[in-house]
Amino acid sequence: MTEFALETSNLTLSFGSLHVMKDVTLRLQAGARHAFIGPNGAGKTTFVNLLSGVLVPDRGRILLMGEDITHQLPERRVKLGLARTFQVNNLFRALTVLENIYLAISEHRQASRDMFSAAAHRRDILERAEKVIERLGLTEDIHRRVSEIAYGRQRVLEFAIGLSLEPKVLLLDEPTAGVPSAEIGSLLDTINRLPTETAILMIEHDMQVVKRFAREVTVLVAGEVLMTGSPEQVMTSEEVRNVYLGQSGYERFATNTIGA
User: Fold this and answer.
1) pLDDT tens digits for range 43-52
2) Taking the model in full, what pTM does it have?
3) Domain range for residue 185?
4) Interval 2-24: pLDDT, tens
């Protein structure tokens, strides 16, 4: 058994002469609650795209449960246990909550060719979908179309889809983006209900969200790791204050609040 659920070693990527990622090393143990923060253009989403296989690094390695997935296709990574959400959701808005999750599980279990058969023929998939829906508190929306539910609930549905893929590592790319401040507290409660054995890496810009979620935080600046530490260490770091945000930006960062 490997010590780490996810491990990157010296990930480096350039687009021509533009260096967007340089020697980024990260290790997540099973059950980790880790946040990745940084200013716009720091390379946070690029890093997630490298992890999920959308991009391939020029140099470095990515290990999932000890297996090298650096050059694996995105769909292969999902089947090996790596799932992600996106800044802008990719849900099927005309389908119901249950149908969205059912399709995700069908694809994951390579049963999508049967998806037009009677649902009773795949009771196992329905039961799995219903269990995930209940766990994340979406039961009252189970038969509603995605277009009919609030945006915060759509974000919860994204978590449900990710969870339905039975991931060992779940990547949350700015999960609170576009969510009304009054709904963020509820969204964080949902994230806290995700399985404790699943390692979660959250890309986020709101430090109050990070404080409520993360046990460890990595600060990324211009594609390089500035520091890794607890939320408190990051918030009180002079290096973060002087290099990452600057005085006025740091004050907004440190005092930013979210709704109840």
Assistant:
1) 999 999 999 9
2) 0.85
3) 6-91+166-255
4) 579 999 999 999 999 999 999 99
Asked if 210 contacts 202 with a C-beta cutoff of 8 angstroms, the reply is: yes
In a domain, 139, yes or no: no
Neighbouring C-alpha atoms within 13 Å toward the C-beta of 223: 15
Short-list 231, 225, 230, CA closest to 209: 231
Query: In the 8-state DSSP scheme, what is residue 140?
Result: G
Please check whether residue 213 is in contact with residue 198, taking contact to mean a CB–CB distance below 8 angstroms. no
> Cα separation of 236 and 140, whole Å?
42
Q: Residue 133: inside a domain, yes or no?
A: no
Residue 150 lies in a domain: no
Which domain CATH number covers 53? 3.40.50.300
Digit-coded pLDDT (tens) for 52-94? 999 999 999 999 999 999 999 999 999 999 999 886 677 899 9
Number of compact structural domains in the chain: 1
Under DSSP, the state recorded for 203 is: E
Domain-located, residue 60: yes
Tens of pLDDT, residue by residue over 158-217, are 999 999 989 999 999 999 888 888 888 888 998 988 999 999 999 988 888 899 999 999
Helix, strand, coil percentages (3-state) for the chain, rounded to 5, are: 40, 25, 35
Decide if 24 contacts 202 (C-beta within 8 A). Answer: no
